[in-house]
Amino acid sequence: MKKTRNVFEIVNYSILALLGFVTLFPFLNVVAKSMSGAAAVSSGKVFIFPINFQLETYQHILFKSTFLQSFKVSVIVTVCGTLLAMTCTILTAYPLSRPHFRGRKFFTVLYIFSMVFYGGMVPSYLLMKSLGLIDTLSSLIVALLVSPFNMFVLKSYFEQLPDSIEESARIDGAGDFTILSKIILPMSKPVLATVTMFYSVAYWNDYFHPMLFIDSPSKKTLQLFLYETVKSPETIIEQFSSSNLVNISIDGITSTAVVCATLPIILIYPLVQRFLMSGMTIGAVKE
Fold this sequence. Notes:
By secondary structure, the protein is an all-alpha fold. The chain has one domain (about 5-285): MetI-like fold (Orthogonal Bundle), CATH 1.10.3720. It has 15 helices and no strands.
């Protein structure tokens, strides 16, 4: 029995290791291309290890293009958007999780309807235009301000908390805001971390709304910079016109842009992984 179990574990781990490598290979290939010489990249010799190692491409992308400006815009939009989105989502999920809230079913149906049916690109643009938010960073924040899915995750978690805690607080004279800020939120750290991560990733990876609402080059986000780099790398090369481009290839430029845009999320994710897993397990299941 023990021998059979050991054989199963060896086969299982081998399969998982193979799947892990297959998953990581594309990213390792992109990283290798970003650090390889132009001749090796253009000839297709680069796989998962750099050939003719160089960092000139990173120097050009970071310091001779609009990358840093786009990075700054993305950080501003992500931080401000996540804070505002979490505030709005919490203030929406908490009352909808209370059974005594009047109109609870009506508003819940509205959120379900908005989650299932999307107005479309044209109504979104016309709405932002009517609000005077075209070509502003506010349009990027408002576009993702409240996610029905994230709201329902929070709502489900709040509904699991014991009613006796809230009742005890009300007996002691606590109001709704005090109960929410002093009792509910401290007990909901895992799901709050989960939803915060969801919003952060959504704001950071959003390129559709910047492409739709933003015109000024100084207000373009990092994902829009990445989209334009992958789509038309020649426009980025034009910014390097006064530089020596002998060791830089088009594939190397696009690979470097992808790595620089992806790296922040990769570095942040391990810090919140524990909260992310526990929050999804608890917040999405109601007993």
